Structures are given as C-alpha cells and as structure tokens.
Amino acid sequence: MTDEAVTTGVPYLSLQEEFQSLQQAWFGRIQEIGSGGAFILGPNVRAFEQEAAEYVGTQYAVAVANGTDALVLSLRAMDIGPGDEVITSPFTFFATAEAISIVGATPVFADIDEASFNIDPVSVEALINDKTKAILPVHIFGNPADMSAIRALAAAHDLRVIEDAAQAFGAKQGDAVVGSMGDAGCFSFYPTKVLGCYGDGGLITTSDEALRDRLHKLRNHGATAPFTHDELGYNSRLDEVQAALLRLKLEKLEQDVAARIRVAGWYDERLAHLDLTTPVRPQNGRHAFNLYTIRHPRRDALRALLNEHKVGNSQCYPLGLHLQSIYAGLGYQPGDLPVVDRLCGETLSLPIFPAMTEAQVDQVCKCVAAV
Ligand SMILES: Cc1ncc(COP(=O)(O)O)c(C=O)c1O
Fold this sequence. Notes:
Aspartate Aminotransferase, domain 2; alpha/beta; Aspartate Aminotransferase, domain 1; 7-stranded mixed β-sheet; 3-stranded antiparallel β-sheet; 2 domains; binds pyridoxal-5'-phosphate; 14 strands
C-alpha cells in the first residue's frame, strides 16, 4: 500500500460531486416552490409520481415519507395484519421485517440462495400455509430477486407480492423494472440509495387502482375527504423540496446506474482472480449496484485492513433478522437458515458511488488482494 492510500483513503460513499452538479437547478426549483407556496404533496410530488410510474412501468406511483412507510402502507392497504404471515428474507435491512411486525403480522423468514444472496423460492414454498398472505422479496443490494419463481408461487397459492425495491431503483429482470413485478413495489429515497434524495422519502408503485386509492388515504391520516376519517392512517407525505430534487435525479438515473455498473466492472476485473465471490447477477436483466458486496472467507481480517487504510466498508449484514433479539419469540435458532448464517459471517460491502474513480477502485482492490 502506498502512503498516499493510507492518508487519503476511499470514502464508502460520496455525494459531494453530485450535490455540486445539481445544486443550481435544485435551488432554482426550491425558489419556485417558495413562491408557489405549496410545500407538501404539491405539483412536484404529483409530477414525480407520474414520472416514476412511467419509468418503473406501472400505472400509478404514490409518494410517501420513507421506504419503511412504503412497506407498512402497502401491507395495510392489502389488509394484512394480526394473524397473518408474510414470508420474507432475513438477509436485509431491519425495516423489511419491521414493517411486517408494525402492521401486526408475523414475518416468516425463508433462507436465501447462496449464489444470488436473494430469497430462495424453494425455501419460500416450504413455508406457505393457510396463514400466509404475502411474499415480500427484497432485491438485495440492487440485484433483482427471482421474480418469475416468486410470482408463480404467489399465483398458485393466491398470495400478494410486495417487492422491497428500496435498494434497487433501475434494476431489471428482462425488460421489467423492479417495482413493476409484484402487486406493489416499495422504494426508499434515503440519501445512500441508487435514487436518493437529500432527506427522507419513499414511493409505492402499483397498477392496482384500488390499492392506489387506499394508499392515498392511508398516507394522509385515513382521510376520505378533508376532516373526514373512517380509519387510522399515517402522516406519511413527501415534501416538494425533495420531490423537486428527485425529479432532477430521475432525469439522470440511467447515467447514474451506468456509472455504478462501470465501477462494478472495474472491481470485477481486479477481483476476478482472488479467493472471493460476488452475488450472481441476472443473465437477462440489470443489477443496479446500490452496493458492491463480496463474500470473502477472511472477511474480518479484510475489514480490519480496510479500516486501517481508511477505506470505507460496511458489514451488510452481520446478523440475519431471524436471530435479532426482537424476534427471539419466533423461536429461530442459529443453523435454521444456514445460508443466511454463512453469508452473515463472510459478506462485506465495498465503496461504490457514481463519481467513484478507477484509481479509487484500484486502492480498494490493493487492500482486498493483500488479505
Ligand atoms: C432493503 C430495505 N428496505 C427498507 C428500507 C427502509 O427505507 P427507509 O430508510 O427509507 O425507511 C431500507 C433502507 O434503509 C432498505 O435497505
């Protein structure tokens, strides 16, 4: 390692370059918003919903306050609650299972596929019973889950499908964009996401009109008309300042995904000969590379070296959700979902962001090669 690498390091994520390039246009839109006086669920939100639905390929999109709410409101809109089971992946951020628990339903955890790190349809099938109401696959790290198999299972057992596409805006299976392959697609616009805003934001995509109407109601306190409420809802609305930014970023989303794929390609070339693997990508489709995650047999040693050299990294994910203390009552034990357990001990996410340079990838890969 060079001295320069030690002193400068590589950030896990940098949004500085993007902010510099967008600030003038965004600030201009904020001035218009200020003059117009509509700050929440205004014209930018409506336009963004339409543009995002067009991009994803659904009839409708409903903007909400964050990705967790997108999941919670989708489950509520499908009347999923106490006594119901929802099958999901435990190899994900906590919000996926948390949303199921928040509506009072029970998360049932399937094992994942060792090759793709995504939910394993064979494991899902074995868990379906009379209480099962939905399957909730996660397109983990931006890599699309096997939606054909999941849709076939859902059709055979009359189940709803909610895609957790929080990390995967712009990912595709065949020509289908994620978020268009289930009954509802849930996105997060947390700043680190492929399409992220500079605050919190979320979106649900759907082609089901009744679902859209229910989501409109739920995001606004269950109101059927001003000051008229027939159920409990949420305050889960997107504001105009974030929607204006999201519209600007959606215009250049293809460029951003292409930049992420280019960075992933630099990693692929440099890491190909090493003792590690990366999740298998769709043969006919597109990984959006929200994260570039590797599986390394000496993950902890690698992590220590990266930290020493100030190279950003993240342990996604250190513990399967089935083994989190909050779910102790569900009775899962280590070894019940062996693939998840193995991957949690060996995976590490490396820096990736659209403005990352080949020299930065070189720096990271020198560390990886040294372990
Ligand atoms: C897979 C997954 N699901 C759900 C969420 C929740 O999104 P948010 O942080 O916008 O609530 C996130 C992101 O944080 C996520 O990565």
